[in-house]
Structure formats: C-alpha cells, structure tokens
Fold this sequence. Notes:
Structural class of chain A: mainly alpha
InterPro entries (chain B): Cyt_c_oxidase_su4_actinobac
Oligomer: heterodimer
Enzyme class (chain B): translocase
Number of domains of chain B: 2
Subcellular location (chain B): Cell membrane
Transmembrane segments (chain B): 6-28, 35-56, 90-123
Number of strands of chain A: 0
Protein name (chain A): cytochrome-c oxidase
Amino acid sequence: MEDVTSSSLSRPTGAPLINRPNVVAVGTIVWLGSEVMFFAGLFAIYFTLRGTSPELWAGETSVLNVPLAATITVILVLSSVTAQFGVFAAERHQARRTGWKPSQWGMIEWFWLSYILGAIFVVGQSYEYAILVSEHVSLSSNAYGSAFYITTGFHGLHVIGGLIAMLFTIGRAYAAKNFGRKEATTTIVVSYYWHFVDVVWIGLFLIIYFLR
Amino acid sequence: MKSNVVIYWTLAVFFLFVATMYTVWAYLYYGYVEWVGVVAVYLLAVLFAFLAFYLGKVYKAQGGELPEDRYDANIDDGDPEMGHFAPWSWWPIALAGGAAIVLLGIAVGAWIVPIGVAIVLVALPGWVYEHYRGNFVH
C-alpha cells in the first residue's frame, strides 16, 4: 500500500509522518459494502422462493450443468489471481513487461490475461443460459427460473462491468506517459471490485449448484 | 481511526448476535426459517466485519495516528495532499444525464433508451480519460 499514500512531501513538524489512507481505496471498499447488501437482497429472494416452492427446486435443479459451472468458477478465481499479480506490478509502477516471463510482466499484461479469463467466464455463463433456455428454464418460466436468472444475471452484469473497468484501466496505463500513483490506485480499486465479484460468485456457486 | 475500527467490529459482533437470535426466534414463532431477515442481518454482520477488517489494515499501514486523531496536532499537520481531485469537470453531469435518459426510457418508452446509451458511451470514457488528454495529459 505504500505507493498509494497521499502524505505530504515535506514532513510536518508536529505529528509524525504517516501514510494517509487512500481516499479512493477506502471509498471503493465502503461502496463494495453497499454491494454486499445489494446481493443480500438477491440471496434473500433466492432462499425465500426456494423455501416457498421446494418441489420446483427438486425438479429444475437437475438440468443445471455443474461441471461447466465448476470450470468457469475456477477460471473466475484464476482471473482474480492474475488481477492481483497486476496489482503487484502496478505497486512497483511497472505498466509494461520487460520480458516474456510472467515474473517480468507489467500491469497491462496481467490485466489483459484477467480480462480474457473474465470474458471466458461470461461466455461460459451465456452458454449455460442457452442450454437452460433450451431445457425450458427461463426468466418467466417459474419461480426457479426467476431466482436463478435474477441472481446469476445481476452477478453476470457485475462481471461485465468489471471487464469494462479493466479495459479502462488498461487504457489509462497506455495513455499515461508515466505510470504513477493515480494509475496504481485505479488498478488497485478495480482489483478490489474484481475480487469482490469473485467472492460473490463463489457464494452463488455454492448455493445454486452445490447446495441446490 | 482506531475507534472507527473498534466500532465496526463491535457492530459486526452485535449483528452476528442479532442475526442468530432472529433466526431462532422467527423459527420458533413461524415454524419455518424466515429467509429475508436471516440473510439480510447475517450479511449486515459481514458488511461491518468487511469494513472493520479493511480499515484495520489501513490503520496498521498508516504507521501512526492521523493528525485529526491527535490532541497535540496542529491544523497544518492535517493539510497534506489528500488525493487527486478534478478542479472542475462536466463529465459527471453528462454521465448522470445519460443514465437518467436510459432510466426514463425504461419507464416511458424503449425508443428513448438508445439516446441515453449513446450519451453514456461518450460520457463514461470522457470522464475516465479526462486527465489523460488535452490540458491534463500526464
């Protein structure tokens, strides 16, 4: 975190020198807190419908493609790992690679990789949706369809938003003459968001595909 | 800052307690699990634990108390560079206008939506890259 501080350059005489909290990072975390409560509403919808019509869940969950969902879950978790390596590169203010080895990659290369992995997740989920619709599970088919598509759909929209944010972050790294604190902060807060969306998906996966 | 962390952890424990009480009490009263309250109150505990954990991390990384948390600090001790702020920007208004038109379209007539989408498509990159071009290029 040392390079996202906004401490004054000259040491003040009264108080000791401290790393002031980064307002963008703290603000992003508070906003993600509100996102926790947004998804709380979605989880509440899911559990309530599951509680009121258990017979629908007994039948409809059999058409879920668990191996596909498990695969895209692993891919999404991996994209979080690569995004974190992008953060490490951003924290050493390294935008571009110095060689082809991953240890020499900059923030741009790691975020492109994260973007591709995240995009594969969205493609996998779209495929799952297509299969489910062909099995007559749709948003308006019954309570199960509504619960499934509203929870995973809002999560999918968050993933797509994260992908757009990643492209913007990569674009900023290309646009800046010097990759500095501002760009590092952008990278860090986008990674916070991405990790958050990842954790929410793990919860959704466990509830929808594992718990059923 | 330390008091913020302590208050948030206290709230996390409080909501964990309340959520458990709510779950049991509602079950005894209704005879089934009342999921809306259970999920919402347990995730309130998660919300406060999340904020407390992060602020605790920030507090540790600070390496001392903020000037505003010290009785012996001077006004100018709390006057460092606070971060990057735009001196002026029209992009947030443009973006909000675009979003408002999209929502208006959803409420009134779908034909309005593309107009809002077009504004958003310009305003979003406009805001994100405001300090990467023209006067502010760096």
